[in-house]
Design a protein that fits this description.
- The chain is an alpha/beta fold.
- The chain is about 35% helix and about 20% strand.
- The strands form nine sheets. It has a seven-stranded mixed beta sheet with strand order 16-13-17-18-19-28-27, sandwiched between helices. Strands 21-20-22-23-24-29-30 form a seven-stranded mixed beta sheet, sandwiched between helices.
- The chain is flat, with a radius of gyration of 37 Å.
């Protein structure tokens, strides 16, 4: 049973192929599908249409997908347009027209081993109370095999919004682009056009793809059936709906099958009283082909007696047939030397027309057997060689250097001879508003220099986008911008849409380098987000936390008034724990609590004395984090509780955190950037930066120190180097379509661990590359990349 349910889940929607017959759905007078009785059970007959999947069919008839699989064992291998499914008729749910009209309000789910109300609420995005409301007695352990009614109104299952531009499809195991294109009556190239990520050849299971809507009939529309239509059929049977006055005898004669074979295929039907409107199964294997009698054979050919001086050519002209047709009808005769009186069979034109149709059908069958389905993926990530032609690569840097602010900062006012004059500073300074972006630019210049030493031809265009969007519009209007291979910028969200629209229109890759606020990540497939917001990293954070140690207690210690983001991360961790342990029949050890300074004993009580406590503090607030760490440290020092603390990159800038407590709690911090001063590349960069700019570079976040604007160090030089070196290196490695190969790319960086992945198949990329910095109890510090 378990194996069957797993197979059903894995191939819920399998490859769809065109059937040789596109058949109409037979319906009764009330718009309800025809019924058939099999093994004493009544079923609706449903013909699978293009675009239909198990979810839609199950919802339409008010049954669960598992009930469909049980009634149609072969369906686990996938659906084809034209397939006929047996849909169970269930009293009180879908046995009449009135019940069917109410089906749109619910979907039906069959309970399987390990599933709980919490599991159902998360799967269908409805509250546990809503599920209980429609399933009386749903408490505790759920009985395997029970059918639950799930209200659809709030369900996350796929909806068909008539006003929407796209249909969103979640990729199932073993699906191909070709199969999905057939399912939605579109082309593979069209799907790729609206999902740029698919050009890299990877169709990830569980990912969503968007498919442009096409005008099609609604799945719930019924098609009237009459005697003039082609009867329903599948591989085993032709399905005949009983009409008034028909008997087993008349049906057997119509299909040239014996009454005994009809009875064996329909044992439940009473031959003396066939129910009007029900369907009889006609076994294809038992249908007897009509025997051709001698008269019929004579009708197919004429016998011609050869006359004096006739040739095979003249005979063929006389009857309007080809010589090859005559030769085929007379395989034992040598027609190149015919004599007077020889008898030759001449095929009639009707016979030849019938044979041509039969041959066409045979060719179609053969063609269907040998046709292969190819997904048109065109990007070759291994075939590009930049150094073959060494084209000039052009990069535009769009940052608010605010040159005017720096100019003003270098003008000082003096009084000479009672007159106020302006003079320039002897030692120039950078405006505070300019400094971040000038440092970024300095690092980018070092990367350009490194690339040029590797033989890369590169031109860098730097533009000052200050003070406002009108300046950005002027820059984008310059003709040279359209020839760029890469745009780095803008710095602020206020200019993001302008640059993104330009990037999308001209298909130019753009890097959004500094801000973590990006509302356009789903709209531009050429956009790369470097500084990723934590909300997009919850998946990776929770993966790391859940897999820390087997059988550890996971404790999420939130602030007294937790923010929405704290609750989201806690939910991610909880869900992944349940998905990890429930299928193994185990209950995860998970505690989630809001911290209170007045309840230190409560904190101690929730920690285990028998196993390691992996404690996560999701709060971004320095005061909250500092209080919780101090409390945890006190508990761990005064008891035998063993704590392993998990923190995040923002902690490295918190000055109120006691570094000794961090070490004592065996803390690991997940951060997107870190400096390892023992690393050769870091040492080379540091030396070069000192030589060029006569100052020290260091990571944006030195440990537990907040750097201000007035420190005598470069805060963003390394950032600019890593961004420029990584992206132009990708261009050199993979060419102009490097975005489709970025998952294969790994480049050494000074402080980042870039790992870009698409947010959605039709959107841009975000960086989920992280480091783990460990602070051990023996005061050791270690760093490791987390990919």
């Amino acid at each position: 049973m378990i194996r069957k349910s797993i197979i059903s889940c894995l191939i819920l929607v399998a490859c769809f192929h065109m059937s040789p017959h596109m058949l109409a759905q037979a319906v009764g007078n009330e718009g309800v599908a025809d019924k058939v009785i099999v093994d004493g059970k009544t079923y609706y007959l449903h013909i699978v249409k293009k675009g239909e999947g198990f979810y839609g069919i199950a919802k339409r008839y008010g049954v669960s997908q598992k009930e469909i699989h049980e009634a149609n064992p072969g369906s686990i291998f996938g659906l084809n347009p034209g397939d006929i499914l047996h849909i169970p008729v269930i009293g009180g749910r879908n046995s009449n027209t009135e019940e069917i009209k109410e089906l749109g309000e619910f979907i039906y789910h069959t309970i399987e081993k390990g599933q709980t109300l919490y599991f159902l609420s998360k799967k269908y995005n409805v509250s546990i109370d809503e599920i209980k409301k429609y399933n009386v007695g749903a408490e505790g352990n759920l009985l395997i095999g029970t059918i639950f009614k799930i209200p659809v109104s709030n369900s996350k299952a796929e909806k068909d919004d008539p006003g929407a531009t796209y249909v969103y499809h979640v990729v199932k195991p073993k699906e191909t682009l070709y199969a999905i294109s057939i399912n939605y009556n579109t082309k593979v190239d069209t799907i790729i056009k609206y999902n740029q990520a698919l050009q890299n050849g990877i169709l990830a299971v569980g990912s969503s793809i968007r498919i442009p809507k096409v005008e099609s009939a609604l799945l719930t529309e019924a098609t009237k059936y009459d005697a003039g239509q082609t009867p329903m059929e599948d591989k085993q049977y032709v399905y005949h709906k009983i009409k008034k006055g028909e008997t087993i005898y008349s049906v057997s004669k119509k299909y040239n099958v014996s009454q005994q074979d009809l009875a064996r295929s329909n044992p439940e039907l009473n031959p003396d009283g066939l129910p009007l409107g029900y369907v009889v199964r006609i076994p294809k294997a038992k249908v007897r082909k009509p025997q051709l009698n001698s008269n019929n054979q004579k009708d197919d050919f004429k016998v011609h007696s050869v006359r004096r001086r006739e040739t095979i050519y003249s005979i063929s002209r006389k009857y309007g047939v080809q010589i090859a047709d005559i030769e085929q009808a007379n395989p034992t005769l040598i027609l190149t030397n015919i004599r007077k009186g020889m008898k030759i069979k001449i095929p009639t034109l009707d016979y030849l027309a019938r044979k041509r149709e039969e041959n066409k059908m045979e060719e179609l069958v053969v063609e269907e057997k040998i046709t292969e389905d190819f997904d048109t993926i065109s990007v070759d990530c291994a075939g590009y060689n930049y150094y073959k032609n060494k084209e000039v690569l052009k990069v535009a840097l769009l940052l608010p250097f605010d040159i005017e602010a720096t100019r003003k900062a270098n003008i000082i006012t003096k009084i000479e001879e009672d007159e106020e004059i302006e003079i320039e500073r002897e030692d120039p300074v950078l405006s505070p508003r300019s400094r971040t972006f000038v440092e970024f630019y300095e690092g980018a210049l070092l990367a350009v220099d490194s690339l040029k030493k590797q033989g890369v031809n590169l031109q860098l265009y730097a533009f000052d986008t200050a003070p406002d969007t009108s300046k950005v519009r002027q820059i984008l209007a310059r003709p040279e911008l359209r020839a760029m291979d890469l745009i780095i910028g803008p710095a602020y969200t206020s200019n993001l849409k302008l640059v993104s629209d330009f990037s999308l229109k001209h298909k130019i890759k753009m890097v959004y380098p500094l801000s973590s606020i990006n509302p356009l990540l789903n709209e531009n497939p050429y956009l790369f987000q470097v500084n990723t917001p934590d909300s997009l990293l919850y998946d990776k954070y929770s993966d790391y936390i859940v897999n820390q140690r087997e059988n550890a207690r996971i404790v999420v210690l939130k602030s007294a008034l937790p923010s929405a983001d704290e609750n989201k991360l806690a939910a991610w961790i909880k869900n992944k724990l349940y998905l990890k342990y429930l299928p193994r029949g185990m209950q995860p050890d998970f505690i989630e609590i809001a911290f209170s300074e007045q309840d230190v004993q409560g904190v101690e009580a929730m920690l285990s004395h028998d196993k390691v406590n992996v404690v996560v503090i999701p709060s971004p607030d320095e005061a909250d984090v500092s209080k919780i760490i101090t409390t945890l440290h006190g508990v761990s020092q005064s008891t035998d509780v063993q704590v392993k603390l998990i923190g995040f990159g923002s902690w490295l800038r918190f000055q109120t955190i006691d570094a000794e407590e961090i070490h004592d709690l065996d803390t690991q911090i997940l951060t997107p950037y870190v400096l390892d001063h023992q690393n050769g590349m870091v040492q080379d960069f540091t030396l070069k930066y000192r030589t060029w700019y006569h100052t020290e570079p260091f990571a944006v976040s030195p440990y537990f120190i907040r750097s201000g604007r007035n420190v005598n160090y470069s805060r963003y030089g390394i950032w600019g180097f890593d961004v420029m070196y990584y992206f132009m290196g990708a261009q050199v490695r993979y060419g102009h379509q490097f975005e489709h190969c970025i998952s294969n790319y790994s480049a050494e960086q000074v402080q980042f661990n870039f790992n870009f992945k698409r947010h959605v198949n039709w959107g841009g990329f975000y960086n989920d590359g992280l480091y783990v910095i460990g602070f051990g109890p023996s005061l050791d510090i270690y760093r490791k990349p987390l990919r």
